[in-house]
Prior knowledge:
The protein is of the alpha/beta class and 222 residues long. It contains 8 helices and 8 strands, in the order H-H-E-E-H-H-E-H-H-E-E-H-E-E-H-E. The chain has helices at residues 3-11, 28-31, 59-70, 77-87, 111-116, 121-135, 160-167, 196-207; strands at residues 38-39, 51-56, 101-106, 139-142, 146-148, 171-173, 185-192, 212-220. The strands form 2 sheets. Strands 1-2-8-7-3-4 form a 6-stranded mixed beta sheet, sandwiched between helices. The radius of gyration is 17 Å and the shape is globular. Mean pLDDT is 85; it is low at 5-11.
Amino acid sequence: MNLGERVLDLVLPSSCAGCGAHGAACCSLCLTEFARPFPVARGPTADAVAVYALARYQGTARKLVLAYKERGRRDLAAGLGGVLGSTLPQVPVAQPDAEGVWWLVPAPSRRAASRVRGGPHLQRLARACAARLSAEGCAVAVAPALRLARGARDAVGLDHSQRVANLAGRVSLDPRGLPPPGSPVVLLDDVITTGATIAACARVLKEGGFPVVAALTLTATR
């Protein structure tokens, strides 16, 4: 935290984005909404990726994700990323590479959305996830290996087929963020709705030689 942020915190103390309690961006009680990973049903287009979520996209969990993603509460990254990091080793099929390194690949964001959110919000979440894993003694690295081409529109309100069409040909590997060839990776996202984004990302990674061992999201709509 820099000096400006310290002064701001004194003037406007942090409050929980879930319940409004003073003292933390997200209180420990609200974080319990993200208790444990559960498998998310997926269709044939999900490329057989095992998808797990920490909470249903409803109630307090939804409120926290929206506050972080759409309402400027970047201070939630540490708490939300932290629960991803502490939970990832519990995902049955998730695993590090042969050297014991967890490779985390955040789902890509539209450039317009990233500008509004102060940068790629899922990369920020992935870094917080990595920090928690590292604090628990794990070797971990964030690999921003995917990018989203121009032309993709906001997916809110789109059904599965529309989301698939929206992403078709627009997700690609980013050479600047690739892990070592052949590394198994874990995909990270904030909300899974139809599974179209996870499927598109997994397909591109697999075709590039990076097996996706699991996808972990904060919330799932179903």
